[in-house]
Design brief:
Layout (H helix, E strand, L loop, with lengths): L6 H14 L11 H39 L5 H10 L6 H10 L1 H10 L1
Helix pairs in contact: 1-2, 2-4, 4-5
């Protein structure tokens, strides 16, 4: 009995991968094996970097808060400790936004401590 090869499905599967890699450079966009490897690697990078993005934003917020409180003669850790002791529950994202865009409100917050 001859081997059954479903060409229609195979072709459809390959075309789906090539559609996903459209816009990439060189053989990554038009050679099936290279395109598949490129897409899979891209998915791994996307998964990893969704988590790395959270870390890098937290570091940015901490840097901004630190720069803002240094103007008032305080360090970041001192400031966060005093906020905790004063029972002021603001996350780093909000604090960094206040420091950047609303310096008067941030100064009022520092004065409360």
């Amino acid at each position: 009995m001859p081997r059954s090869v479903n060409v229609v499905t195979s072709h459809r599967k390959r075309r789906k991968f090539l559609r996903r890699t459209r816009g990439q450079f060189g053989r990554r966009k038009n050679v099936w094996t290279v395109a598949r490897n490129s897409w899979e690697k891209g998915q791994l990078y996307a998964y990893r970097d969704r988590r790395a993005k959270k870390r890098s934003f937290r570091a940015l917020w901490i840097t901004r808060i630190n720069a803002a409180v240094r103007q008032y003669g305080m360090s970041y850790s001192e400031f966060m400790g005093k906020l905790d002791k004063a029972n002021i529950r603001l996350n780093r994202k909000v604090l960094a936004d206040l420091a950047m865009n609303h310096p008067d409100a941030f100064k009022a917050l520092v004065d409360q401590l």
